[in-house]
Amino acid sequence: MKKIFPFGGISLATVVLFFACSCLLRSGSTDLALQAQLVWGTNNDKPDDPKLKEVDAKVTERLRTALKWKNYFEVNRQNFTVHAGTPKKVKMSDHCEIEVDNFGNSSIEVKLYGKGKMVVKKTQKIKPGELLIFAGDDKNDTAWFVVLSQTEK
Amino acid sequence: MINHETELRLQAYLDGELSPGEAKAVEDFSNSDADARSLFEELKLTKSLLAENELEVRLPESRGFYWSKIQRQIEREEKGQASEQAETAATSWWLRFLAPAAALVALAVLVVVALRAPKGAEALVALDDSHEIETPLEETSSFSFQSEAAGMTVVWVDSHRE
């Protein structure tokens, strides 16, 4: 009797190899290195606070093209890596936290927490060079920003 | 009383299978022995009855046509068997090569889907450029906008403060 699947051993080896390669590809490509910056935006000059640093000029320029504030100061910066299926919680300030989940293929879910409560949840792709910004207004016509981007390798 | 060997020789004599010398000897013996003579006459009668009363089968067509019909029938059946075998071989070819190919294609699709959605079905709907936003708090609303020029997406959170 003829076999429907000839070369049974070779076919099996191919299938196993195929799955092994796909697993390797998945494990190697799904780690996502991110940077999160807590930024304060104002139209005033830089206050006398040594903790505040000026945001990178290129990022500032990009923020200015879409937002109304002239000056942007970095309050905190966190670099971290998110593994697929393992959400990462990052503290940006005493009242502000983010939780990032890596869905693979540069797709992430970000949860923004304010005073322990989830304020907003956003799911989207984040490509290298792109910024995902969470923002809200603050006192005296200022604003806060959490700027997420992929870390340059 | 005649033995079996003699019976066989009498039968052979009757069928004309003996050499002239043997035939002469059997003829002399049957003339001199009553039992042999009786058996010979019986065999001769039986042979004549079988030969004269054998059922004659007449063919409805000529002999040549009759055998050519049989030959054609044999050839037809051989061709049928050959085409059946060819069909079986063709089916076997499809199964032998397309079945593994189809399995590999299915496997490739499965791997591609798996690579795109490591978290499973929930992730599938959130992939690509789908943008999902959720604001669970009643006192908070949000909206998002995208600036292609600046390469950024902004999610603005409004806490409805006075």
Folded structure, characterized:
The complex is a heterodimer of chains A (153) and B (162). With 153 residues, chain A is of the alpha+beta class. Chain A has one domain. Chain A contains 2 helices and 9 strands. A 5-stranded antiparallel sheet of chain A has the order 2-3-1-9-8, covered by helices on one side. The radius of gyration of chain A is 22 Å and the shape is elongated. Chain A starts with 7 loop residues before the first helix and ends with a strand. Chain B is mainly α. Among the domains of chain B are: 50 residues, no CATH class; 43 residues. Chain B has 5 helices and 3 strands. A two-stranded antiparallel sheet of chain B has the order 2-3. In chain B, β2 and β3 form a beta hairpin. Chain B is rod-shaped, with a radius of gyration of 51 Å. Chain B starts with a helix and ends with a strand. The interface between A and B is large, with 48 and 46 residues. β8 of chain A pairs parallel with β3 of chain B.
Can you give keywords for this protein?
heterodimer, A: 153 residues, five-stranded antiparallel sheet, four-stranded antiparallel sheet, B: 162 residues, 5 helices
Short summary of the structure?
The complex is a heterodimer of chains A (about 150) and B (about 160). Chain A is α+β, with helices and mostly antiparallel strands and about 150 residues long.
Helix and strand topology:
The complex is a heterodimer of chains A (153) and B (162).
Chain A: H1 8-29, E1 32-42, E2 53-54, H2 57-66, E3 71-82, E4 88-91, E5 96-104, E6 107-114, E7 117-125, E8 131-138, E9 142-150
Chain B: H1 4-14, H2 20-32, H3 34-53, H4 63-116, H5 121-126, E1 132-134, E2 141-147, E3 152-158
Antiparallel strand pairs in B: 2-3
Helix pairs in contact in B: 1-2, 1-3, 2-3
